[in-house]
Amino acid sequence: MNIPSLRSRKRARIEIIPLIDVIFFLLATFMMVSLSMVKNNGIKVNLPAAATSAPQEHNDRMTISVTKDGDLFFNKEELQLDKLPARLTQLKAEQSDPKVFINGDEKAFFGAAVEVLDDLRQAGITKVAIDTKLKP
Fold first, then answer.
1. Confidence (pTM)
2. Euclidean distance between CA atoms 78 and 66, whole angstroms
């Protein structure tokens, strides 16, 4: 006599639904982390707030930072104000149409920011933006 066994009828199978859930979770996590990684060329300063600020594309850009103490940084390299025109002339020679962001502390001396802007104009750099944060 042949007695049917319950074990012989059950076959091993892979549950696909939990696997898809895990894959989508990992994909979403990876996307959120990669989108939040913004390359910051300038040093960390307390940006001024503006109600009309809008996000700008930060690809292939140079950043000139002015701290509240009046120190000047070209990307993250400290630079004296009198050396800035030569550095900007070199930048203009390397790139035909460079983009420059002025990244200044809200308590920075306004005269230093104006001098930076003036040096940019004298070097022939026309694509200039000022970094701000959105006013709450």
1. 0.60
2. 10
